[in-house]
Amino acid sequence: MLYIREMIWYITELATIQYAAEAKYVEDHVMSAHRDGPASAVFRPAILNGTVSFEELARHLDASVELGKAAPFAHSGSCVAWGIPFEIGHPVFLRDQAVTVQISPTTARWFVFLHTSDIRALSPDQNGFISPMRGIGQLGEHAANYVLIYEDGSEERAKIRRRHEVGSFDSRWGEQCTQAVTAIKPRPLSLNGVNEPKPMRDVAGYRYPVEWGARQKQLIVDDSVPWINFLWAFENPHPEKAVEALRFEPVCGTLLISGLSAGNPRSMPLRWGKRRKALLRFPAELSFDPGLDEYSLLDKIQVDLGQLITASPRLDYPTEDWEKTRQNLEPGTTLNEVLVEYTAHEDAEFHFVDGTRIAVRELDRGTAQNGFILQAVAPADRRVILRVVEAGTNKLVPIKLHVHGRMGEYLAPVDRTRVPNSGWFENYSPDFCHGHHLSTYIPGQTSINLPLGEVYLEITKGFEVKPIRKIFIVTPETEQITVEIEKVLHWREAGWVTADTHVHFLSPGTAMLEGAAEGVNVVNLLASQWGEMMTNVGDFDGHTTFGTKAAGGDGEFLVRVGTENRQHVLGHISLLGYSGNMISPLCSGGPDESALGDPVDVLLTEWARECRKQGGLVVLPHFPDPRLENAATIVLEEADAVELCSRGSSYRGVDPYALSDWYRYLNNGYLVPAVAGTDKMSAQYPVGAVRTYTKIRDVLEFSYESWMNATRAGHTFVTYGPLMDFNVDGRPMGSRMSLPSSGGTVDVSWKVASVTVPMTTIQLIVNGEVREICTVRPDQDTGSWSVRITKSSWFALLVRAKYDDKPEMIAAHSSPVMIDVAGSEFFVATDSLTILEQIEGTMAYIDTIGTRAEEIRYREMRLILESAYRRLHTRMHEMGFYHSHAVGAHHSEHG
């Protein structure tokens, strides 16, 4: 489902719709004409002839330096804030003496002021304590009086207090106003993460990212801009009397009053109502261009005294060809039907591109105007039991499920969210958001409310089961739908088990469900630290493997909680399956992994050694990044595998950059197998999108321990869909064999298959270079080559594949088979030098900018790194490769 979020960002970019109720643009004084949406006809701006220009304000002696620097970012010109129009020319600078401003005689129930306060300095005593303590925002401090002067000479006075009626242009977080709002509408953040959040920008183009905390709230208030104005609505006790002037009386500090608007809404204009939803159909001639991005809808419909939350076009899934199209295919969108959610004041109106306006009050009754039709969406109300079973056995099987109705609307089971949230660390439900295409995971049976008529189902389960797309007709009598799935590839029966080495945030139970539904036999759920936040640490006990028969499972799908220990410069390391106490600290060395002020007091290599002592498997995750200490860990032979990671995409494939880095270690004889992990941290990525296949040999029963042992042995390949088997002279992946000094010819054989992504070519990689290529044909799934070698060499198999609508990718890659030729060592001088330089960089980091641990701890770490350096450096010299040395990198060897 397509959700149109971050609307104000786009509206400020477009500003294409002009409204007659707005006054002429004041070009001479525009710093930034902020418009957070269309202007309400309920309000009309009043011109304030102030006392200073914004240019003068930047040099004003009575203003703070900070205020002067922020002045270029202030609202000016023809602005709209919270749907209320303002004409801003010269603001009123209020400090030492009262200022009276004449306005055109105006009768109104409500006057809305656009104003802000300069910084108010605190006065701590000699000990740094502040009394009375009102906070930086000076809560309740009487700043000024605003006086309405009526035509009959009478007056009405309003007391302006800081953090009540007005706030500071540069506010401290947590010190909001009680009766005023920041003059930039709050806006929603994407609930489903269809797109990465676009940078927000203030009225002058100042940009900053949407942070995690703001996304958690699912809305954002733009209060981190350089200049914040506030809206305060004053209810006039004498709306029948015309106001001809205003007098601003200072009490303490400095205020800037930029704008004034008057109107007659029925109630407090800054208070919006509860969220509502409406289905809108545009006239055909106003259909939006599907070639434009999703934000193009926002020049079709806007709301003034309120905010749009979502605008989701009806998704255009294939109908007649539904059963023939591929799994996870994202839908198109319709051209003139859109479902909108909104929150608004009772006097708000929807605005359409042709000038049509429809009042919010009319929506409950239903309406049509100028070709715009509002139509209720009939709820899905037929409760159906959906069962997915294994063909031939009628056994319920966990799967990934997508269902939608005739209008393209996503239909979730009754115990799943209808709007999955795919933000980072925001989703705890078993859902998957593949762009606009939403799915969920079920254990084989679920209850779902369906509309009458056609419903469209998609069911997938890993890389060995044929994906299914089916159409069902739901009638008033439909009570149950049963779907059979068929396994067509049988790698599991041949001893292969699948694994995702890198998953975060899920509970063990949810990880178990998603792993089983995706056909992943081993899910490694990693506890870790993120600044002051710890995740999954309560799920770690150092001995439980969830899903075993002893733990009440069937022993086929397992979850084990390990840890990802991290340092933002030295690197990350995944410690899988170890027993006993948690290896800590989880993170080191300060942000953004560790907490501020944490010293660099442990190395990746030390974490690896401790993991091995406790019986675990050591993986270098999302290899090669962060790209520093993993060099020392590999040279010291403390790593069991490198992880080729999806990096957030199911279509990017194995990254050649990562392969290039891995190849240089293989070129120098370090046999480190490849595994795969998703680094899943949101519903945007499924467990096992890229996964490890491990061949368990000579073991009768699969277990977590047998999986670790086979992975250490390198009997692995990584894949985005294609499956393989590969050997050299009958030796499997991960093997090491020998040839005499004369070398020899080896026989390479392979077998491949894919039921998800079409394969294109098979490539033999020898010493990091493509040696042989075979184009895949429909009638060929096996092949062989005879290859002559004269020096020590490593061999690996690479499979390329391509969906029709996506670029070709490296879709699978084996671990190597290494062949030692007598008298010929694995050594590439240029690669060894880059590895050595990486170790030098590690030492340089802990020597210089890394927060220093206690001296003895620092020295211990330095000695470990020096030992890695010496080991490789000595070997380079033994191989006759001499090179220039970085200053201070190894002074113990070369004084």
Secondary-structure blueprint:
Elements (H helix, E strand, L loop, with lengths): L6 H8 L28 E4 L7 H4 L7 H6 L6 E5 L2 E5 L3 E3 L4 E8 L3 E8 L24 E9 L4 E7 L18 E3 L4 E2 L11 E2 L5 E2 L3 H6 L1 E2 L9 E6 L7 E8 L4 E9 L12 E6 L19 E3 L2 E11 L15 E13 L4 E4 L4 E3 L8 E2 L2 E3 L7 E9 L8 E6 L26 E4 L2 E6 L2 E6 L2 E8 L7 E7 L5 E6 L10 E8 L4 H10 L4 E9 L2 E3 L9 E2 L11 E10 L3 E6 L27 H10 L3 E4 L9 H6 L5 E5 L10 H12 L6 E4 L13 E5 L8 H9 L3 E4 L3 E6 L2 E2 L3 E4 L4 E10 L5 E8 L2 E7 L6 E8 L3 E9 L7 E6 L2 E5 L7 H19 L7 H24 L17
Parallel strand pairs: 25-32, 33-34, 34-37, 39-40, 40-41, 46-53
Antiparallel strand pairs: 1-16, 2-3, 4-16, 5-15, 6-14, 6-16, 7-8, 7-15, 9-14, 10-13, 11-12, 17-20, 17-24, 18-21, 19-20, 21-22, 23-24, 25-29, 26-28, 26-30, 27-28, 30-31, 33-42, 34-35, 36-37, 37-38, 38-39, 42-43, 43-52, 44-45, 44-47, 47-50, 48-49, 48-51, 51-52, 51-53
Helix pairs in contact: 10-11
Q: Would you mind describing this structure in some detail?
A:
With 895 residues, the chain is mainly beta. Among the domains are: 382-485, Immunoglobulins (Immunoglobulin-like), CATH 2.60.40; 489-508 and 517-720, Metal-dependent hydrolases (TIM Barrel, Alpha-Beta Barrel), CATH 3.20.20; 723-826, Immunoglobulin-like (Sandwich); 829-878. It has a 17-stranded mixed β-sheet that branches. Strands 1, 4, 6, 9, 14 and 16 form a six-stranded antiparallel β-sheet that branches. The protein has a five-stranded antiparallel β-sheet with strand order 19-20-17-24-23, with no helix packed on it. The longest helix has 24 residues, at 855-878.
Could you give a short description of this structure?
With 895 residues, this protein is mainly beta.
